[in-house]
Structure formats: structure tokens, C-alpha cells
Amino acid sequence: MRIGAIVRSYYLTDYLPYVLKQFDYCEKIIVPNYRYNDEEKDDNTYEIVSDFKNAVVTVDLNGKSTQAKAFNDALILLQDMDYVWICDADELIKPEDQEFILSNMGKYKSCLMRVIDYVDENHIYPVRDHKPIALVKPDVEFYTTRCCRGFKDPLYLDTIFIHHLGYTFSKEKMDWKTNNYWGNKKDLDHYSTKVKYNVPKFVKNVLQKT
């Protein structure tokens, strides 16, 4: 089975090395350097990607593009893969969970997963109903952010999670993310209450190193 990955990355690269490392076994990794607007930031995506094997490719986009186009352009370069992981530069999936998902895809063209949003080494935000796409056949088409068409009845595993570290950035970076990634429109009320949680060791290790 030939496996690829797409990892979006721009500016918020604290966890990018760990995200890329979790896909070390993938034959190709495409990193869309997607800019949410035309603002220039101190982005070291290229520098980080250069430390990985030759199968890692970086695609440069600007704020006049869309997130869906970033995914679709990357998928063009992965048409010879059997499956492609879809990931942001602040998301982790346990290696054993990746293996389990791949071994259970069967007839499915996509896999949806729930998300755990981490606050720090001891807390999370309440788990949302949100189920983003985590794995696809390369012949699907994204039409907005992380939604795509070209399949029915995705594989959904309720007990396997994407571990999202995107709320653990510094205040400066979180302000930028709120103003750019969410366009000042996202309802952040959900994130006003944190919950005590036994954070998995592999997540805690990453948080402690950054």
C-alpha cells in the first residue's frame, strides 16, 4: 500500500517537525505553505521540511488561494498513492491508530475522526462534535476547508482521535490565528472552559519539548 500525506503549514510551525516525523513512513509528504492572507510572517516551514527525506515536497501558495485549492493542488501530486493523510501542522495521530485505520479502510474512500483540543499538559477543551477528514483516496475533491466530495459513507471510528495542539501557542500566535485563520468569525465560546484530562504521554512529550 502506497501512503502519502498533506500537511498545511505557515508561520505556526512549533509542532511541524513532530507532525512530519509521524509520517516518516509515508512515500510522499506534500506541505502546502498556505498563507491565510498576504501578510508576511517569519515562517520557517521550508527550513523544517528540508530536514526530512527527499520524499517531502513543499508547495508555495499565497493568500489569494483557498484552503480547498491548497488541498486539491497537493492531491494532484499524490495521485499515485493509495491513501493520503490530511493534516495540519499542529495535529498528531498515534502511530498505532494510523496503522489500525489503514488496515480497516477496505472499501472506504475517506476516514473521519473526532478531535481532542489541548490547552496544556493537563487540560483539554470540551470535545466537539467536529469530525474532520483525516484520510482520503487521492481522487476526491475538496470544496471548502476540510470538506470534500467524491465519496459516500466514510469510515468513522468514534474512539480514535486527532490530537490537536493548535490552542497551545503563545498569545501572540493565537491572536494571529484568530485574526487570520478564523477571519474573526469563529465562535470561541466553546473554548472558555477547560477540562482536567490525563494527557497521553506522546502528546505531553511534544508539549514539553516546544
Distance between the first and last residues' Cα = 33 Å
Assembly type: single chain
Spatial order of strands in the largest sheet: 3-2-1-4-8-6-11-5
Would you identify the CATH architecture?
Alpha-Beta Complex
What is the topological layout?
Layout: E1 3-8, H1 16-22, E2 28-33, H2 45-49, E3 56-60, H3 67-76, E4 83-88, E5 91-92, H4 95-103, E6 110-117, E7 123-124, E8 133-136, E9 141-144, E10 147-149, E11 155-164, H5 171-180, E12 195-196, H6 201-209
Parallel strand pairs: 1-2, 1-4, 2-3, 6-11
Antiparallel strand pairs: 4-8, 5-11, 6-8, 7-12, 9-10
Q: Explain this structure to me?
A:
- The protein is an alpha/beta fold and 210 residues long.
- It has one domain: Spore Coat Polysaccharide Biosynthesis Protein SpsA, Chain A (Alpha-Beta Complex), CATH 3.90.550.10.
- The chain has helices at 16-22, 45-49, 67-76, 95-103, 171-180, 201-209, and strands at residues 3-8, 28-33, 56-60, 83-88, 91-92, 110-117, 123-124, 133-136, 141-144, 147-149, 155-164, 195-196.
- The mean pLDDT is 87.
